[in-house]
Amino acid sequence: MSDSFLPVSAHLTPAAGALLFLGLILASSILADVVASRTRLPRISLLVLVGLGVAVVQQLVLGQAEAAPLDGLGEPLIQLALVMVAFLLGGELTLERLRTTGPLILIVSLAVIGVGAALVGVGLAALGFPLAVAVTLAAISVATDPAAVSETVHESGDTRLRARLLLGIVAIDDGWGILAFGLAMALLGWWLSGDGQAALALAAWELGGAVLLGTAIGLPAAWLTGRLRPGEPTQVEALALILLLAGLSSWLEVSALLAAMLAGALVANLSRHHTRSFNEIEHIEWPFLVFFFVLSGASVDLRHLADALWPMLAYIVLRLAGRYLGGVLGVRLARVRQAELPRDIGLALTPQAGVAMGMALLAAERFPQHGALLLSAVVGSTLVFEMIGPLLVRRVLR
Fold this sequence. Notes:
mainly alpha
């Protein structure tokens, strides 16, 4: 029989399948935009639901053993989206803005993460969970998904103090998260086995290496921006910057978010034409964010969620309570009027995604006896936080 009579599926190569899947993801975002414009649902939540539908078809209908959409192509797409978001958030940290809101960002963020982590750790320990599980989940609870928060804030068009404060907090939250996680792993390693030096050294390199990389990329970028064509940075310059940050941070095993955030802050403070540089990235950012939210939902392993239902629910409730109480404390310490900062501002810092999953994977490798429980609890709660997070951000902004 001639090849021309073969079924279409026989000609569908992995590359063609990946391209087709990417096209369908972008097409689904158009549908999500239509539904979001006619309902009160944020499009981010709708995109996560699309990803969850992909996971259902892939794992439950087709019976595939692992959640691996795009056969490894999804990871670099997610990495690029997060680096873009972190770079744009770094652009919010100009010296002028930090002089006016910097102390407020520090007070509220430390209150939210401090109260939240303490409540999660103590609460899980009181419920009878192992010390390693309680401390690890407490450290993971610090991380916030900057993509969901920043996209919802920009979508709302809000420029008040609360919106600027949220953007500033999520720009540094992952730094606190990485520091808290590294210290937690070091303390647990020392407490359980007497070996905390390796974990502490890894955390120091992840933070310090990110600072070095962000500086090494950000300083030349700030000087070069707009010089090829005065005052008009091109998309090629912007995309090259993002790819270099994503690739080098992955190769050197440092925090891509911190490196990109620092580079963005350097460009914003040292370049005369910095606003145009960020505009170029904003023009190409949304398709990558679509991939990020859909692939995050598609990566959930549905068959292991039931095993961690109780710890997942406990973690969700304790983290929400901790974020709320931390926000209340932060607003009181900052002594800002209720009209400017709502007491429930901590709830707007609920979303969690890639960073939390990465921490769970590292913790599962370090404590394999608790690996399945940690991974299932974090993955399941991440899906819940990504779904309700944008709704809570909108509520706080209103």
